[in-house]
Design a protein that fits this description.
The structure holds 2 protein chains of 2 kinds. Chain A is an all-alpha fold. Chain A has 15 helices and no strands. Chain B is mainly α. Helices cover about 45% and strands about 0% of the residues of chain B. A two-stranded antiparallel ribbon of chain B has the order 1-2. In chain B, helix 3 packs across helix 4 and helix 5 packs across helix 10. The longest helix of chain B is centred in the first third of the chain and has 28 residues. The radius of gyration of chain B is 23 Å and the shape is elongated. Classes of the chains: A mainly alpha, B mainly alpha.
Chain lengths: ~475, ~250
């Protein structure tokens, strides 16, 4: 144990690479699915490439492939530095790495081939996608995921508890709570609606799961990493410790209460729907404190937005976070829901949150860490700048486009036009969305190419120049 | 030295934030709703399949060879099998990602789709996990029963664009067997028949185009509230037993 280095850099690198591979898969799937909406799906009639299945590949590759891998990479980098102790076990870390890839690949296999092979073998219900949004991981593999999540929690809890004799830094609050929440949430969402509660009460729990996966897994890990990386890269302390406390405890209290807002005006008991709406507006107020805290931190040295690409990624993500949260406080209202529920408005919202916020933070982290992980300076800074602008413009374009599409669809439905009218009216928006998505895709391809060229460059003659400004050095 | 506040300690964060607040959310959004719904009995597939719908018998007549090959004859047992498989196909092909299964009391949805959803109709084994859906690219399906004939459903699954030219729904040609005769018409296979059965079941308990609900209508004897399509097929469905007034399992 004692010979274990503080941070296993190779592990961080592997997690980032795996995450980027899945991001490519997810973008490819998203692009294909977008073509279906234009009646130009290239693999029409090919069973395992059916657009419905491809759609689930898109979301699952993002959640469990890209986000999980990259957020864990960030945690493997930050938690030992913050606590002063390495993670529990190097063996377990590597075991988890391969287990996660195996689970994601099994999920992809189950979604693509489960309905066919499962039907043949008589185990369709267990091998194919599970009917829980964001939890399509086949039921067969769910127990393995739960064990994996418990191991992840133990792996990271150990350094956190060991370092708990000193005051815990903000990031570690988020990590501690986030790992516990994720285990509980996964068990709740994947088992209770599947085996115990049908219909409305099951939907209430499925709603909790959908939202908690974003709010209690991705969000705490994402903010935990921001609380580490932004101050470290800027070499400035976070603006206010007290405000961080409000942000964390507000999120911890309000966020779990949000889930049912995914099924407003449904047969779920109304008290639960009203509570969820109130709690959702509550969480947005709390989130503003976090936003203010970060803007005040970055403002101390605002020039870094033009000089430091990682800070620019992270700041953009933080601004997008504020936009999505403000939008959420508004779109969750019952009046707004009458129009926008079931429409592309929500799809736009999801893209801005998942890619525009957490994706951007991760890409900022990779931009910062990759040269250190491969021990070479970036192959091309120009490509990285292109990567940023293509992703940023693509994301904001897609967001606005889908928001507008949602309004068109919602009002078309309410006006009782024939259903097809809403589809016809959406096609121009869907076409534009495909272009925006292509911009994002091209940006990521440039970035992956740049990562590859950087890693494959000849070894630096004499550690040329300090590539980045991260404070802590690996032990 | 700076004093550590209680709310900054690992134990507080893990126990109060991690476990406590999560438990609170489970109580409010899971335990209480489940307790409230306890009065509404869950209907099992076995109970549902006791009422074999005319559409299932129609499939047996319309595609006799295929039906005989895959299901034998229309009986509660085969009906249960078809519903279960149809639901699994609906999940596996991600139908639920573009079609919802609940009608809201807003945005004229009752005028478009029919009766507003009520808790009892989702309290069935086939809604485990619930298939409410969060996106409508295509229309809601909880009042789909009887909207279209079985052969419309088959043609639509084969190639939606042939039926609705502007449709963006994918085609599902693997739900059909290739005809032996090259000029023959593809016939739905087991998965196709099961999916059509499932779709025709969705909302069969509440007439799709009824005017807004009269509670006494919903609890009336099935003979009085019998849908028109059932009457036209009386000879095809002689086995349908008159039910006592209180046994509408969805209410």
């Amino acid at each position: 144990m004692n010979d274990q280095p503080l941070v296993d850099q190779k592990l961080v690198k592997y997690h980032f690479v795996a995450g980027m591979v899945y991001l490519m898969v997810a973008l490819m799937a998203g692009f294909l699915f977008a073509l279906q909406f234009l009646q130009h799906y290239p693999h029409s009639g090919v069973e395992w490439l059916s657009p419905g299945r491809i759609r689930m590949i898109h979301t699952n590759a993002v959640a469990y492939g890209f986000l999980l891998n990259c957020l864990l990479a960030g945690a493997y980098w930050a938690v030992p530095r913050l606590s002063g102790h390495p993670v529990w076990s190097r063996f377990v870390s590597w075991f988890l790495f391969w287990a996660i890839q195996a689970i994601v690949i099994f999920t992809v296999f189950g979604i693509l081939f489960g309905p066919t092979l499962g039907y043949k073998w008589g185990i369709q219900h267990w091998l194919q996608a599970q009917a829980i949004e964001w939890g399509e991981t086949p039921i067969l593999i769910d127990p393995v995921v739960v064990v994996g999540l418990i191991l992840i929690a133990i792996n990271f809890m150990r350094p956190i508890i060991k370092g708990a004799d000193k005051p815990l830094y903000v990031s570690l609050w988020y990590f501690s709570a986030g790992f516990i929440w994720t285990i509980l949430n996964y068990v709740m969402g994947n088992y209770i609606p599947e085996f115990y509660t049908p219909g409305a009460s099951g939907a209430a729990i499925a709603g909790l799961f959908i939202h908690d996966l974003v709010g209690l897994f991705v969000t705490p890990l994402g903010w935990g990493l921001m609380y580490y990386f932004v101050p470290v890269i800027m070499k400035r302390p976070i603006w206010s410790h007290a405000v961080s406390l409000i942000g964390f405890w507000g999120l911890a209290f309000f966020y779990p209460l949000n889930g049912v807002h995914h099924f407003l005006y449904s047969t779920i008991p109304m008290f639960a729907q009203y509570s969820a709406v109130v709690a959702t507006v509550g969480v947005e107020v709390v989130v503003m404190t976090v936003f203010i805290n970060f803007v005040a931190t970055i403002r101390q040295q605002g020039g870094m937005l033009s000089t430091s690409l990682p800070i620019r990624w992270m700041f953009t993500g933080i601004v997008f976070y504020m936009i999505t949260c403000m939008q959420c406080a508004y779109q969750v209202l019952l009046t707004t829901q009458q129009i926008i529920h079931f429409t592309d408005w929500v799809v736009g919202h999801a893209h801005l949150v998942m890619f525009g916020v957490f994706g951007f933070w991760i890409l900022g982290m990779i931009t910062e860490l990759w040269p250190r992980l491969v021990d070479r300076p970036w192959h091309s800074r120009t490509l990285n700048t292109w990567h940023y602008w293509l992703s940023m413009i693509g994301t904001i374009t897609m967001f606005i486009d889908l928001m507008a599409a949602g309004l068109v669809q919602g009002f078309s439905w309410r006006s009782l036009q024939p259903w097809e009218e809403s589809v016809v009216a959406s096609v121009p928006f869907w076409l534009f969305r495909s272009f925006a998505g292509t911009m994002i895709f091209v940006g990521q391809i440039l970035f992956v190419y740049n990562m590859w060229r950087t890693a494959r460059a000849p070894a630096p003659a004499a550690a040329a120049q300090p590539v980045t400004g991260l404070g802590a050095q690996p032990a | 030295m700076k004093q550590t506040l209680l709310i900054e300690r690992f134990g507080t964060i893990a126990l109060v934030g991690g476990l406590g607040f999560f438990a609170l959310s489970v109580v409010i959004f899971a335990v209480i709703p489940v307790a409230l719904m306890k009065e509404v009995k869950m209907v099992t597939i076995e109970e549902i399949s006791q009422h074999v719908l005319p559409d299932f018998r129609d499939l047996a007549e319309r595609y006799p060879e295929q039906f005989k090959k895959y299901f034998g004859e229309a009986s509660p047992k085969t009906y249960a099998e078809a519903l279960r498989l149809g639901r699994d196909v609906y999940i596996g092909e991600a139908c639920w990602h573009c079609h919802s299964q609940f009608i809201r009391p807003v945005s004229n949805e009752d005028l478009r789709f029919g009766r507003v959803s009520y808790a009892g109709e989702h309290q069935t084994e086939l809604q485990m996990p619930p298939l409410f859906g969060t996106r409508r690219v295509g229309p809601d399906l909880i009042r789909e029963a009887g909207r279209h004939a079985n052969d419309w459903q088959a043609a639509h699954l084969w190639e939606p664009k042939d039926v609705v030219s502007t449709s963006v729904m994918p085609s599902f040609k693997w739900f059909f067997d290739k005809p032996a005769d090259p000029n023959g018409v593809p016939q739905p296979n087991k998965r196709g028949l099961a999916l059509i059965t499932y779709l025709q079941w969705l909302g069969s308990w509440a007439e799709p185009l009824d005017p807004p609900i009269l509670p006494e209508l919903a609890s009336a004897k099935p003979a009085e509230a019998a849908p028109a399509k059932a009457e036209t097929k009386v000879e095809a469905a002689p086995a349908r037993k008159p039910q006592p007034a209180t046994t509408n399992p969805y209410e």
